[in-house]
Amino acid sequence: MVELFDEDFDSIELAEGALILNKAINPKTNDIWARNELQRLLKEAELTLSHEIGEQQRFDALLRLFYHQWGFSGDQDAYYESSNAFVDKVLENRKGIPVSLGSILLYLGRKLGLPVSGVTFPSQFLIKLEWFGEAPKFINPFNGEYVSKQVLRAWLIGHSGPLAKLKPSHLKSVDNPTVIGRWLALLKSTLLREEKYTLALKCTDLALSFVPDDPYEIRDRGFIYQQLDCHQVALSDYQYFIDQCPDDPAAELLKNQVNAMSLTQVTVH
C-alpha cells in the first residue's frame, strides 16, 4: 500500500495529491489518464483565456468554461456516491462534490496564475479568491457561483446550530494535507454507505498510518472487520476503544456488542 506520509502534498497540486490518495485506496483508479486529462483541460483553458485581459476576467472566463462549456457540475442526484470523490471518475463523468470539483478548478486556476486557494469550511469545501486590494471572495465549487458572507453564515448555522458565529478561522486557506485528511474521512464514509468494506478498510489503514493509536479510527476498523466476518479482530478493536474512551457514549453500546459477539464466537480447530 502507498504510504501517504511519504508524499510531500504541499509540493504538488491538490488534485494530484487526491489522485495519490485515490490510487492508494483503489488500485483500479485510472490516475495516468486523469493526469493527462488535467493537462489537456489546462491547454484548452490557456487557449480559451488567452484573449482575456485582467485576472478577474480570466477567472470568470474559466468558470464559464468549466461549468458551462465543459459541463462540470455537482451531482445532485447521487451526492454521496463514492465515485464523486475519485478524481478520475469526476473527470470522466463531469460530476462530483465540492472538494473533488474544487480540486480540479484549483489545479487549473493555480496553473493559470490566478490567486486561488482552498478553504475547508465546516459545511463544504470552498474556493477562495484574493484579488489585490480587495476583500476575499468565495466560490461554491458545486455550481461555480459566488457565495456571500450572508449565505456562509446561513450554511454555518445549518451545520453547527443557531448559536454558531462566522469566524475568520472558518475562511482561512488550508494546506493540502488538511484537505487530504478530510477527503480520506469522506471517502471512508461513502464506501461504508455502499458496503464496500474492503476499500473502506484501506481508508482506515491509511488514516492509522498518520495516527496509529486513534481510538475512533480503530473503532471504525472494528466495525469494518465485523462486516468482513473477522470477529476476533473486531472484538480486539472494540475493546481498545472501550478502554481508551470509557466515557464516550458509544463505549457503553460497544460493551453490549462485545458481550454479544463473545457469546457467539466459535473456535475453529
From TrEMBL:
Sequence similarity: Belongs to the UPF0162 family.
The protein's name: Tetratricopeptide repeat protein
Matches recorded under InterPro entries: SirB1_N (IPR032698), TPR-like_helical_dom_sf (IPR011990)
UniProt xrefs under SUPFAM superfamilies: TPR-like
Pfam families (alphabetical): TPR_9, Transglut_core2
Span of domain Protein SirB1 N-terminal: 34-184
Organism superkingdom: Bacteria
